[in-house]
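Reviewers of the previous submission asked for a worked example of the structure-prediction workflow described in the proposal, so we include one complete record here. The input consisted solely of the amino acid sequence. No template or homolog information was supplied to the procedure at any stage.
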Amino acid sequence: MVKKIILFLIISSFSSCETVKRTYFGMEKTEITIKPDTEVIEYYRPFLKDNEYALKIYTLSNYDAAGKALSNIGVPKIFIKNRKTNVIYQLDCFEDIQDNIQDINNNVIDGYITLKNEQEFKNLEAFINAAQSSKMIFFSGENNTMKTWDIYISYATFLGKKLRKLTLPVTELNDINEIIILNLSFNKSAAEIN
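From that input alone, the workflow returned the following C-alpha cells.
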C-alpha cells in the first residue's frame, strides 16, 4: 500500500492535477469539442427512461455561447428544483449522488444542501431559454405539471463516461417532471463553418 502511495505521488509530481483527474475519470482532453447531435444524444441516452419523465438535451448554438457558458455556468453541475416549493438543491457530481437521491426520496431533506449560488442556477436557466445561446437537439416524453422535480444538469461529453455514470442516479429520484441537460461541448472550427 505504501509503495502504491509513493508511486502515485511520484507520478503526480511529474504531471499536473488536470492529467491525473482526466486519467482517473476517463475524461478526454479538456479542449472544447463538438460532436454531431446524434453522438451527443447517444451519449446522454442512459438518462432516458421510457416516458417516465421528459428529457430535453440542449447544446451550444454558436462559438460565442461557449465562452459565455463556461464563464457563467460551472461544469459539471446538478440542480434539482422542487416545482411545488421552488426550493433548489445542488448536488455534487463527485459525491455519492445515489445516497443524496435516496435521502430526498425518503424526505430526509432537513439540513440538506440547498442552493448556495442562486445566480449560477439562474444563469443556467437563462442560458437554456436563450435561443442565441443554446438549441434543443432532443426532446422525449411529456412534461407532467403534477410531478414534483425538475432536474437541470450542465455537463460536457469530454468529462467522460465514469463521471456520467456517477451522475446517473439522479434518474432514480421519485416524481421527476423533466431532466434538462445542457451539453457544453463545442469546437471552434464548427463555429467558423457557420
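The chain has a mean pLDDT of 76. We consider this example representative of the routine output the project will generate in years two and three.
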